[in-house]
Design a protein that fits this description.
Helices cover about 40% and strands about 15% of the residues. It is of the alpha+beta class.
């Protein structure tokens, strides 16, 4: 049965308009993007097969465009469109943290670190530098490592903060394993960073660990 023959409340586009995008499943959202399915199958069935073979959704969307091109039901045009749509989403999320934006919601920083770091296959340690009113000055990837960790040099974070005339810093790193639970090494680095920044009257506001699910805030656990 073609999707046009489905009950109106079950069609992905009509459901989105009536109930909002969050009401749709991963397959239904992907089906809207695909527009049509492979021969003999509707878009939702094709989307489910794509997710079953190459998912879940995050694993599929983390693929570079060169890989997406080779997947069934995508091809060059859809792969490029999907990559562009993902980048639009990233830039939309980043808009709140453009230079001069006031960081009034601590969770916004966690979401920003997540969208910047979650897709990396190796550990990346980054810093968000803020002014005296906690407005974003710059976000920079400071250190890169392997699958198990990245060596962090607090003096380099301090040096960069001073160069940017920052007053406070939020840091974060990803766990490629997907487990966002902070390790003993993460807590030790946090303590060293806080001490090093404090020597020059700079504040460490938080340290986020990015994995699957919500970012983990070390400040929320009382470790900053």
């Amino acid at each position: 049965m073609h999707i046009r023959e489905w009950p109106a409340e079950e069609r992905p586009r009509e459901k989105l308009l009536a109930r909002g995008a969050p009401a749709l499943s991963d397959a239904e959202l992907l089906a809207i993007f695909l527009g049509s399915g492979l021969r003999g199958r509707d878009a939702v069935t094709t989307a489910r097969e794509l997710l079953g073979a190459h998912g879940p959704l995050r694993a599929l969307l983390d693929r570079p465009p060169q890989d997406l091109v080779r997947l069934p039901a995508l091809g060059l045009a859809r792969a490029c469109t999907l990559a562009a749509a993902l980048e639009l989403g990233r830039r939309h999320l980043a808009a709140d943290l453009e230079r001069g934006a006031l960081l009034t919601d601590p969770q916004a920083a966690g979401r920003y670190f997540a969208q910047r770091l979650r897709g990396h296959a190796h550990e990346v340690f980054a810093a968000l530098f803020l002014d005296t009113r906690h407005r974003a000055i710059a976000f920079e990837e400071m250190f890169r490592g392997g699958l198990d960790g990245a060596e962090v040099h607090p003096r380099e974070v301090v040096r960069r903060a001073l160069a940017l005339n920052a007053a406070a810093v939020i840091v974060g790193h990803n766990h490629p394993s997907g487990n966002p639970e902070p390790s003993a090494a993460d807590r030790a680095v946090t303590a060293r960073l806080k001490q090093a920044l404090g020597l020059v009257d700079l504040r460490l506001l938080d340290h986020f660990v990015i994995g699957d699910g919500a970012p983990v805030s070390l400040a929320a656990r009382g470790w900053v």
